[in-house]
Automatic annotation (TrEMBL), chains A, B:
Record protein name field: 3-dehydroquinate synthase
Binding residues annotated for Zn(2+), in chain numbering: 204, 266, 284
List of residues binding NAD(+): 125-129, 149-150, 162, 171
Main subcellular location of this protein, as a coarse class: cytoplasm
Database matches in SUPFAM superfamilies: Dehydroquinate synthase-like (SSF56796)
GO terms of molecular function: 3-dehydroquinate synthase activity; metal ion binding; nucleotide binding
HAMAP family in UniProt: DHQ_synthase (MF_00110)
Gene: aroB
GO CC terms: cytoplasm
A Pfam family the protein falls into: DHQS_C
Sequence similarity: Belongs to the sugar phosphate cyclases superfamily. Dehydroquinate synthase family.
Catalytic activity: 7-phospho-2-dehydro-3-deoxy-D-arabino-heptonate = 3-dehydroquinate + phosphate
């Protein structure tokens, strides 16, 4: 693709490399496209220039991602005549805090970026959430481009407009909804991602099959090795995931209903992350791998789903090398009451009653309100005991 | 008014004291009412309970306003069965900073307020801007009630959804658009406001006449003493101002066009505030009083407006005791070049070109793009010299 002269802002006129898949996110005047394919990072400049003519760009990245991919982005922007500067934060969840947020805000303002300019997030979910929040608040909202570089970010955090940081009381409690103008998911940049983080992101891919697309789950059971290897299967898995999330977000942008389905496995998962300190002991995708298995097992226990389905879910996660039991988490865990306390502190608790995403089987997740806390507690006590016995 | 049993959320069903004026702000699904009148603070509990059934309330106030009016609000909330707690910040512009923002966010989250709960801003524009920003970002958006207690806040900052804080590079550069669910302007609480701040807020009232309502300006010329004294004239002036701002905001919520008219006198005014350190030397309303006079004088200079109109504007501001010349600002001011630098740093500068609100006469303000900086510079040099001669 070459950058053509006339700036064209309409998403539908946007040109892209031939083998790129385009997933539109339909949100009225906030609609945008996700472009997925090998090499889109090298086209970022031209694509951004078309979508946001005349903008300057403040790139936010972390030092790890920056080392691998910042130069490619900067040259592409330079080629397209986009003036840019880069703001580099430390890698890891720790950067989603108030201090870093304030630093990035200050750097953007010191760089004299205006409302018509763009914040470009080049990184995983951490960079995307942080940079998106900055884009949402500097001058009460700047343009925002997501260039997700982790699998998790490509299939989940870069789509849907949720941004934010953590506070001492909990994760993602402060932020805004701020939709990007464009999302560029280069499947090739995932080649530099650690296998552990690729696998963790893959848990979110499987989630879309489990929520409402049993066929996709079956396809993943058959093709997951090709997804890990790269190539067209990877692009297909990412595009299917984005399409699935985009459809849910389009129907419920502000999470007043259906969007909660995306939390399948996350109530358990968040409690496990909190229990392990949001660190290397258990990364998010691992936590929700266990969480999704628990959600299926609990649904079986409630006579909602068949044991066969739950076993198949566990087998697939275990097959790709993801943890599926509490026993696999290194170090000590709180007891069932301790986990319940963490669950009730999770933000998905609405006015005191427990809301869970449960399932009638693979591809049949649903929002269950008023789940009885004692049933969850007993279930967790057994899950812990099972771990202790092995 | 007594709190009736059934929660009614529709704005049009809302009951209020008989002599209360209701100004609707039409913003689609974000529409809300402004209720203006003596004593509405005492009805806050019932009114909030109707609008946001079942909510808890985190009150944000400053220590001065809190001393005078917090108890009335707390009893009213208690009567309506609304559980609340108060977060008290220091009075003054200094509280619109990152540190206080973070403290208030933390206090709200520590108080376990959820998305369905409300942040209630009880105070002037400082408290409203700060608390509104907090409401906009905690859990990605909570309910928000404005109880403006300064005249400026009642006629300007509480209406329209702009929230934010200052950073070292400039004022209001960080924030969100977050519309309130309800605005309660008790004209009686203004009795405890200092005369200086009342007068400063009055400058914004006059602004609405100058923008597009010559009749209102004439009415103010005749009735301003009654507005200062309180009573129905005060309510009328506040309601007219709110109606005027609401109409402009409804047509241009995100300030992509017409809303810029509200900046009449503000480009000059902001430069003067920056020059005097945003403090007691010159408060905002005083700065824009001078700014509006300068905008009229400059329009005369550009052959856009008649000298008669400009003189009338100056006479009215001077008559109520507001400053109208650079010479009245205590202490030293930068020279014309220094003021120009401050003007070009103001956020209304778009991509390098100067945008000013100029006027064809009283009630006939318009957005002038590409004003020639040198013309402004020369004009300011003369305005300064005129001051030096007196
Ligand atoms: N906004 C949302 O809707 C949403 C949804 C899900 C998760 N999240 C958030 O996403 C975050 C997790 O995202 P994540 O897993 O991407 O974490 P991350 O951003 O920390 O990335 C994981 C690690 O991989 C590195 N990395 C990323 N891309 C790389 C690449 N191409 N090559 C080499 N290294 C690379 C990073 O430096 C980091 O060390 C969490 O903070 C979570 O809250 C947000
Ligand atoms: N959001 C917007 O659209 C918008 C518009 C205009 C101005 N603003 C902002 O508003 C702020 C200025 O507002 P302000 O003039 O109300 O300042 P303020 O909030 O500092 O109030 C002025 C002073 O009056 C005191 N006070 C307020 N109400 C009182 C009462 N009833 N009795 C006794 N004392 C009282 C306060 O404690 C303070 O000391 C600025 O920060 C400005 O940026 C915002
Ligand atoms: Zn997740
Ligand atoms: Zn003003």
């Amino acid at each position: 693709m070459t950058a053509s002269g006339t700036p064209v802002t309409s998403a539908s006129d946007m040109a892209e490399p031939a083998d790129t898949v385009r997933v539109p996110v339909a949100l009225g005047e906030r609609s945008y496209d996700i472009l997925i394919g090998r090499g889109v990072l090298g086209e970022a400049g031209a694509l951004i220039a078309r979508r946001i003519p005349g903008c300057r760009a403040a790139i936010v990245t972390d030092s790890t991602v920056g080392r691998h991919h910042l130069e490619t982005l900067e040259s592409s922007l330079a080629e397209a005549g986009i003036d840019c500067s880069a703001i580099v934060v430390s890698p890891g969840e720790g950067s989603k805090n108030f201090a870093t947020f304030e630093q990035v805000v200050d750097a953007v303002i010191a760089g004299r970026f205006e409302r018509g300019d763009a914040i470009v997030a080049l990184g995983g979910g951490v960079v995307g959430d942080l940079a998106g929040f900055v884009a949402g608040v500097v001058r009460r909202g700047m343009h925002f481009v997501q260039i997700p570089t982790s699998l998790l970010a490509q299939v989940d955090s870069s789509v849907g407009g949720k941004t934010g940081i953590n506070v001492s009381h909990g994760k993602n409690l402060v932020g805004v909804f701020h939709q990007p103008d464009l999302v560029l998911a280069d499947t090739g940049v995932l080649d530099t991602l650690s296998e552990r983080h690729f696998r963790a992101g893959y848990a979110e891919v499987v989630k879309y099959g489990l929520i409402n697309d049993a066929d996709f789950f079956v396809w993943l059971e058959e093709n997951w090795r090709d997804v890990f290897a790269g190539g067209p299967a990877r692009t297909h898995a990412i595009a299917t995931s984005c399409r699935s999330k985009a459809a849910i977000v389009a129907r419920d942008e502000r999470e007043s209903g259906e969007r909660a389905l995306l939390n399948l496995g996350h109530t358990f998962g968040h409690a496990l992350e909190a229990a392990t300190g949001y660190g290397d002991r258990l990364v998010h995708g691992e936590a929700i791998s266990i969480g999704m298995v628990l959600a299926h097992d609990f649904s079986v226990r409630m006579n909602l789903a068949s044991k066969d389905d739950a076993d198949r879910v566990r087998a697939h996660f275990a097959g790709v090398g993801l943890p599926t039991t509490l026993a696999e988490i290194p170090g000590d865990l709180p007891d069932a009451d301790g986990l319940m306390t963490l669950i009730s502190q999770d933000k998905k608790v609405s006015r005191g009653s427990l809301t869970f995403i449960l399932t009638h089987g693979i591809g049949k997740a649903f929002i269950a309100k008023d789940v009885v806390p004692d049933a969850v507690r007993d279930f967790l006590a057994e899950a812990k005991a099972a771990g202790a016995r092995t």
